[in-house]
Amino acid sequence: MTERFEKSIHTLELPQVLELLARQAVSQEAQERARNLRPATDPEDVERLQAETSAARSMMDRGHAPGFADLRPVEAALQRASLGGSLNTRELLNVAGVLRCAREAQASLGEGEQTTCIDQLFRSLNTNKYLEDRIFGSILSEEEIADNASPELADIRRKIRGASGKAREVLQRLISSSSAKYLQEPIVTIRQNRFVVPVKAECKGNVPGLVHDVSASGSTFFVEPMAAVKANNELRELTAREEKEIARILAELSAQAADDREDILIDYSLLVQLDLIFAKARLSYQMEAIPPRLTGDGSLNFIRARHPLLDPKTAVPIDVDLGRRFDTLVITGPNTGGKTVTLKTIGLLVLMAQCGLHLPVADGSTCPVYREVLADIGDEQSIEQSLSTFSSHITNIVGFLDEMGEDTLVLFDELGAGTDPVEGAALAVAVIEEARSLGAKVAATTHYAELKTYAMMEPGVENASCEFDVETLRPTYRLLIGIPGKSNAFAISRRLGMPEHIILHASERIDRQNVQFEDVLARLERQRQEMEQAKEEAQRLRTQAEADAAQSAELRRQLESQRLKVTESARKEAESILQEARTVSNQVFNQLDEMKKRQQKGEAAADENQRRTDLRRSLNQASERLPRTQAEEAPPPTRPAEPGDTVELLQVGTRAQVVSVNKDGTLRLQAGILNVTAKQEEVRVIEVQKTNGRAQAQKMAGRVQRQIRTAGASPELDIRGMMTDECEGVIDRFLDDAVMARLQTVTIIHGKGTGALRQAVQQHLRTCKYVKSFRSGRYGEGENGVTIVELK
After folding, report:
1. Cα–Cα nearest to 48, from 271, 353, 317
2. What totals of helices (H) and strands (E) does the chain contain, helices first?
3. pLDDT at position 599
């Protein structure tokens, strides 16, 4: 990398972007690598760097990003360990942290997922779970070694606790004895790793022992009583053994780390590399950036590009095209209009792409790989070096001309400025033509009208301008390709308070040809703005039309879908009804045939009656399953029933008299010989009034039809165990149901017993108007235990 390329990197503010990248890295070395990152110039390297960033971002999207919190430098520590040195607890914890990072990073690579270019980095990691657990299990923190680091250490510490207990016990006896009056405080403390008691200075001779310390005021002597010397000596020896054992453990762990030094260093290097790659992915998220499509023809096309160091909420995105239809872009416009920012955006995004960073651009953006990016931006005048503004620019340009060539991007800010306008413009045109002849891509800003004309006339050179709102006299910072810009010096001066007569006097001194040229530019700008507004309106109308068409198409699709669903549902329902009808009819015909055969064989009447009942029930059930075309009208609500009212039971259509109203609001009813309990909502009051006979007949017919539809009476009644007086009502209700079900023969089971219940049943049957005849059962029917009743 040449000196001027490095200088251009700083001019385009790439180090500021790399500082943002460093903040996304976790480890210290990855942060340093981020700050020292420089653009790659080989297309394959740039392709690989972009692919690595995209792969890392894809892993982050899936929630598989590895962590690097425990990644700390270990190279110096491992080097010392390999030379036989012993590492301290912090250094060993750092080694274990690298091993844990490697293991967790390798585990974050999901099985069966799409292969990426960074998978090999994960698979190259060397995990050592044994050493990792050994270090973390032995060292609890920088200041603490675990008891279970070794059996010897555990035994020593057990003895230390015992010796400490003995020493404290001795001193505690002293505190509790008559010697306590010589103590400054009744406490046990430690001085020089030995247990002592605080003795008053004037009483130090009353407590024989060793003085280990004196307070700052001299009023307290810290004395180790002679009785505690032996326990303290034992404790001191055990402490020395503990320190020796800890040193042995650290040396052993250091030796194990030294044995795996190469693998650990490889893991560390790979993890730092992964940390930097994932830092690029996190920066991509922060900038809402995407990977550009790299081109090999030198063409650059940034869509809605933003300068990465500007606030994305206020930065105005620009569209830049260079290298396809033209190789040189001449940008004109007023000061503070955004020309320099445009140049910096172009150069900085190219450098970022070649560093493997995603760009804050829209989909479809492309970027080539340049061998060098050279930028002459800003005023570099130097009194110390006797350089004026013009001289500093020319010095840079001369150096650029020595390095320009194919695959070079050159950025000139205010090319030819700082000297006579005529000579400066001519020099600017000559420099651009020389750069083009060397194969470089050029973007330059200027105020010279000659350069605008040159760009309009010369093939391969295109005008561009930074848009200026002539009504508000403020720049919009939009870049317009193909349209030269005006400097708007008079308009800006007028807005800044320049007296009008000075501006008029200045305008009179402008060359007529220049005035006409500026007028042409002004008309072109107005026409462009009108066309832009018309284009936006057309786009809005087109978008609205497309939205309306899409809405209409969706509505048609929904209607068609509903129609198909309704048609399919109706078809299935019709097929179901037909199938049901076929099934029922087949059953009816089969049962009729069977009944005919059984009747011919003279089978029992009871069995025949049962089959007829089952047949009628199946017909009724099939009828109920048929869809109703109109819901049965519910009866209108009536007032609450009171004692003495006549009510109708809604479910069965039977009338009854209200006997009383219970405390819970239910009604006690008398329906013939039956006592019934019902709720208020289960009955409706029948008001006593004269009604039309025909209406009554229709109502009665409807009730009878409703009863017939719900009929499905049993052909047998079992009254065994009932009293003679209570069975009569049950028999009447049973016969009512049998008549309504059109049964011809029914059976009443009363049992044999004493014969009293049979006599009561048969006596009651003689008075029943529904009974045509009755008889006792024959052999096989139940004999005297049943009564067979033939109905009218």
Report:
1. 353
2. 22, 25
3. 60
